[in-house]
Design goal:
single chain; Alpha/beta knot; 7-stranded parallel beta sheet; 7 helices; 7 strands; 21% strand
Length: 181
């Protein structure tokens, strides 16, 4: 059976304006000192694909507009809401005040495996992803409601931050999304 690739106009994607008005998944993504603009752009693109509420950029994490970020975001940085905090702890405090459960994605003592995290439909979640080498800051982990990690079975101890974000966002979308079509 032949399978013809669809043309862009056949994908029926919504416009940036329609995206802004569309229902979002109750998930905020926090980038804690992510240094690679390509990783940041990739997280924006994944956030767009799954309609996350917002991306919070913290510390050294670059903000739009940014030409290097745009290379991987491909315009998603114009659709997904974002805000910047110089201090990630201030972002965590703000999210908690807004009623979010905040989790760091980090290999830590007593962290939960992603698949064992129980999500409730009536709750709002924020997931913190850390620096490519150092991960999530310890002070941010301490301020979080908990830590989750992705099970891994190979020789490496971690995944690229944008890959990790993609896996977590995809997992949350399958378990949290309401009818968004």
């Amino acid at each position: 059976m032949k399978r013809r690739k669809l043309k862009l106009e056949e994908l029926n994607r919504i416009s940036v304006a329609e995206f802004q008005e569309a229902e979002k998944m109750p998930l905020v993504v926090v980038l804690d000192n992510v240094r690679s603009q390509h990783n940041i752009g990739s997280v924006f693109r994944t956030g767009d694909a799954f309609r996350v509420e917002e991306i919070i950029l913290c510390g050294i994490t670059a903000t739009p507009p940014n030409a290097e970020m745009h290379k991987t975001a491909l315009g998603a940085e114009d659709a997904v809401n974002w805000r910047y905090f110089e201090d990630t702890l201030k972002a965590v405090e703000a999210l908690k005040a807004e009623g979010y459960l905040v989790y760091s994605v980090e290999q830590a003592e007593n962290s939960l495996s992603l698949e064992s995290l129980t999500l409730e439909q009536n709750k709002k979640y924020a997931m913190i992803f850390g620096h490519e080498v150092h991960g999530v800051q310890q002070s941010v982990i301490d301020a979080s409601d908990g830590c989750i990690e992705i099970p891994q079975y190979g020789t490496k101890h971690s995944l690229n931050v944008s890959v990790t974000a993609g896996i977590v966002i995809w997992d949350f979308s399958g378990r949290l999304k309401k009818e968004m079509i």
